[in-house]
Structure formats: structure tokens, C-alpha cells
Amino acid sequence: MADLTMSVTRTDAVLIGGGIASATLAALLTELEPDWSIQVVEKLDGVGKESSDGWNNAGTGHSALCELNYTPQDVDGSVSPAKAININEQFQVSRQFWSYLVENDRIGDPASFIRSVPHMSFVRGIENVDYLRRRHQALTANPLFDRMEFSTEHSRLAEWAPLVSEGRPVTETIAVTRSPDGTDVDFGTLTRQLLTMASGRGTSVATGWEVVDLRRMGSDWGVMARSVDGNEVKVFRAPFVFVGAGGAALPLLQKSGIEEIRGFGGFPISGQWLRCTNPEVIERHDAKVYGKAAVGAPPMSVPHLDTRFIEGQRSLMFGPYAGWSPKFLKTGRYTDLFASVKPSNVTQMLAVAPPNLDLMTYLASQLAATGRQRFEALREYMPQARPEDWEPVIAGQRVQVIAPDADKHGVLQFGTQMITSADGSIGGMLGASPGASTSTTILLDMLTGMFPDRVDSWRGTITSMVPSWGTRLSDDPRAAHESLERTAESLGLRH
Length: 495
What we know:
Layout: E1 5-10, E2 13-16, H1 20-32, E3 38-42, H2 82-103, E4 114-116, E5 119-124, H3 126-140, E6 149-151, H4 154-160, H5 162-165, E7 174-179, E8 183-185, H6 187-199, E9 203-207, E10 209-217, E11 220-227, E12 232-238, E13 240-243, H7 249-256, E14 265-276, H8 279-283, E15 288-290, E16 304-310, E17 313-323, H9 336-339, H10 346-351, H11 357-368, H12 371-379, E18 390-394, E19 398-404, E20 410-413, E21 416-420, E22 426-431, H13 439-450, H14 455-465, H15 477-491
Parallel strand pairs: 1-12, 2-3, 2-13, 3-9, 5-15, 13-22
Antiparallel strand pairs: 4-8, 5-7, 6-7, 10-11, 11-12, 14-17, 14-18, 14-19, 15-16, 16-17, 19-20, 21-22
Helix pairs in contact: 1-6, 1-13, 2-13, 2-15
């Protein structure tokens, strides 16, 4: 083994992790602070290979057009559209930012990372049909959703999604909604394009380096990274650090010792897809068809028959089926979960089990399911599916946030949460869906919150990138429709 070498480099910002979060932040910072030197550090040999990779993430282009878990039904039967509207607003911010990058030749052909794919919701049974009707009524009152159609007709289902219709009894009570404004996003490709752009504008990207420590060094943070061969150590010093390392964000923020991470824990959930191998079947489906989640299922396990475009190739997948592993990353270690348990969060970690027995039961049933049982779940959405046309694919890891409540008990959350230090010197993203699709909003909010003294100087640039920044498109139907039309034109989408 070669002698260990060490070097120290000072920079303006260090971004840990080479996924869509760090890539988006790097792209934003190169516009807002073009004179900054930015360092991205990634453990793997390339960027966008963990949760941002197309085969690893459970949903792409999250805009709440079809995801039923974003529109819960209240005890009185009413459907609340608030969360869905908020997620769609955030996705429109991402669309505006991507449009800006395309229009200003920062990134290349948008067809390489975003395509028009209708978003559909499909349910069966009288109660579910009534719910979907109420959901449609609640959402279409909003200009971001007003092109969504609703039908209970089998003929319309056959027109919109023939694979879902064929072989289904015409006596079955069904309902379906369809929005033509849906998209599919290849976040792996987008990540690589954003970092390529940033690399040409003052950002250095170091792959094959694992961050092993994170601590204060005077007024800076010191980020210690070790090469994958173990022969070299680099220390990056910077006054600002962002931890966008997916499941690894929790242990890295714990290493930082900031007070704001105390009490937080993580619960990892893995998954698996069925991927279609028959080109004729793939070409006959053009939609993301989402159903209702099983009782206790996490959001990443909402079943969907999903048209994807990954690295330019059209594909069709179904799932995901939930699983469990103590790893915090697909390429992580089996000790990740146990190493994350600290005196500061052990109470919260232990407290989440009793209120989440439905989740535990669901995961146990998924782990015990046979291949035949999993295929029967596909046939609920595609009655004439044939086993020889499908193959299993292992999805990525998700680490759901366990957050402390007011009584310092643990609460299992299924969204994305930002952790920022009181002095604004370090921030990190925890959690999963819908983080990738809404990352532009999340990171703009983080930056403006952590650098309040710079907001005035950034304002003009931010509004040029995101014209709706600081407003709600939902409050202005004309502005909402104009934004949808403009970004559709810039990104080559159908509208």
C-alpha cells in the first residue's frame, strides 16, 4: 500500500454528494455568485448514480397530478388539495429554472432529460371512484390542474391506457383521471448536465472521494475526504457547506455536531421494480398510471405503471415493491442504520415503532411476498401482462426522516426536510420524495434563508431564472397558464 498523502484546499463552498440536489445548488450558485469557487465531492466514480439515477428513483416529474397520497381524504369525505397544489407550485419553479438554463444555452437539448408523459390516476370500487371524483373537483378549480380530465368509462380508459384496459371486465367499477401536463424527468442525465455546466464556470467535481469527517476549523468548515483506494486524504476548507448526500446526509450532519441535527434519525426503505423487456409492449403505453397505496405503505411504494425515458431510451416499469435493508445508500454499508443511532436520537428512534405498526406490517408482507404474488400486483394494473415480458430491477435506498416533536418523541415523516445551522454556514437535505422534482424551490429557500444579506443583490437574477419567485401561480390563472405554456415551449413539451 502506498504512503498516505494529505492536501488542504480552500474554497468558497463545498457540496457533498453528486446527486440532483448538489447539482441544482451548484447551478444556482454559478448564476448567483459567479466568482465563487465551488467544490463538489462524490464517493462514486460518477455523478447522478445513487437516488438520482433513473432506475433508482421511485417517481419522476412529481407534480401531484396523479399521486393520490398528496390529496388525503378527510374523515368527512372531503379531499384537501393543499399539499398537491404546493408540490405542483414547486415543480413549476423547477420547470422555469430548467427553461432558463435551456434558453441561455447553459445546458443542451431538453429532450435528453424531460419528456411529455400524461399523468393518470386509476382506481377501482365505488368508494375509490367517489374519492377520485372529489379529488378531481378539488384540483381542477386550480389553474395548474384545470386541464385534468375525469372518466368512469372503460372506453376512455382504453383510449388513454390500453394496457390497463385490455382484459378488464367491463362490469368493473373504475375511474381514471388524466392530465396532459405531466412529464417524465431523467434526473440522472439532468444531474450530469448541471454539473457539466457548473464545471465550466468555477466548480470542481471530485469523484471517487468519500467524505469521512466534517468539523469546524476556525471560521471555516473542514470537509475531510478519502480516496476510494485509501491512499490519499483531502481536506476542503470553506465557510459554507451543503450536505446533499441522500441517505448519507444524516450521518454526515451528525458528524458536524450542529445542534439542529439533534434528535433526528432515519429509517431506510429499499425497493424493487419490474421492468418490461418487450419493445412492442413498451411502445403501447404512454402514461404514468398511479393507483392507491396499500395501508401503511410509504409514498415511494405507491404502485404505478410508468413510462420512463432513461438516457434517451423509452422504458416501462411497474412497482415499486417495498423492501428493507439497514443500508442508507444502495452502495452503502449494512452498519449504516446502527451507526446512526446516537444518545441524542435513540429516544426518538425507539418511539416511532408503536405509531407505525401499519408500516411495519406492510414491509413484512412485502418481504414475504413471492415472485408470483408480486406479478399478480402488476396484473391488477395490466390484466394481460405476461411473466416472460418482465424482469426485476433493484431500486435505490430511501431514508425516511425521523424528526423530534415538541415532546422530543420521534415522528416518522415521508417528505423532504432541510436542516440548517443557526449561523447559516451549513445546510443539508434529509428525506426522499418529492425532493428531486422540487429541489429548485427547496434550495432557493435554503440559500435565501441562510444568506439574508445577499438576497437583495440576488433578487434580479433569481426572478430572471424563476419569474414566479415569491408569488403563487395558483393565485393568478393567467400567469399560471402563461408559465405552463412558456416552459412547455422552452423544454419541447406538449401543451
